[in-house]
Design a protein that fits this description.
It is a peripheral membrane protein. With 167 residues, the protein is α/β, with parallel strands linked by helices. It is built from four helices and eight strands; from the N terminus they run βαβαββαβαβββ. It binds 1-O-pyrophosphono-5-O-phosphono-alpha-D-ribofuranose, hypoxanthine and magnesium ion.
Length: 167
């Protein structure tokens, strides 16, 4: 697709960092729900939104958690987002008091599709790139558009050569 740049930089996020950043997201959202009831439900965008959604719902003591499944990428190549599974719309209603959580926004296409199904929900991501930033009401860290974010569930610890090499 033409809306993607080659990724010149990598931003590697550890579990520890993800936990800190998702907690920071929860604290930023705390007290900013609708006046007449606050946040009543979390909807995680699978799969990347599930770990942050768990941390946010734990911090904010929200027990009603559902998922929306959107598939947008095959590895680093973008395709049109497809909703594979919707949340329980009896619980979601028009989205008032609902927090939609994802790990990041990149082009914003995933969130565009998701927001259309829950127009009054509040969208929050841990990380954001400039192209999709307007699709998100609350986020923690912005990275440049040519950065690929590597999440801890996609990585493993492995040996690296010393900087000066070996004989
Ligand atoms: O703003 P966009 O350009 O739409 O990209 C962002 C979306 O892409 C990734 O999900 P992906 O579709 O790869 O699925 P996954 O969460 O199951 O890994 C990421 O977790 C976001 O949901
Ligand atoms: O930068 C990214 N990292 C991981 N998954 C993604 N999906 C879209 N952009 C990204
Ligand atoms: Mg995702």
């Amino acid at each position: 697709m033409t809306d993607r740049l080659p990724h010149e930089k990598g931003f590697h996020v550890s579990w520890d960092q993800l936990h800190r950043d998702a907690r920071a997201l929860a604290w930023r959202l705390d007290g900013h729900g609708p006046d007449d009831g606050g946040w009543r439900m979390v909807v995680a965008i699978t799969r990347g939104g599930m770990a942050p959604a768990m941390i946010v719902s734990r911090e904010l003591d929200i027990r009603t958690v559902d998922t929306i499944s959107v598939k947008s990428y095959n590895f680093q190549t973008r395709a049109e987002p497809q909703i594979i599974k919707a949340p329980n719309m009896d619980l979601v209603g028009d989205g008032t008091g609902v927090l939609i959580i994802d790990d990041l926004v990149d082009t914003g296409r995933t969130l565009e599709v998701v927001r259309a199904t829950m127009p009054k929900a509040h969208v929050a991501t841990v990380y954001a790139k400039p192209m999709g930033r307007e699709q998100v009401e609350t986020f923690i860290t912005e990275v440049s558009q040519d950065t690929w974010i590597f999440f801890p569930w996609d990585m493993a610890l492995q040996y690296v050569e010393p900087y000066r090499g070996t004989e």
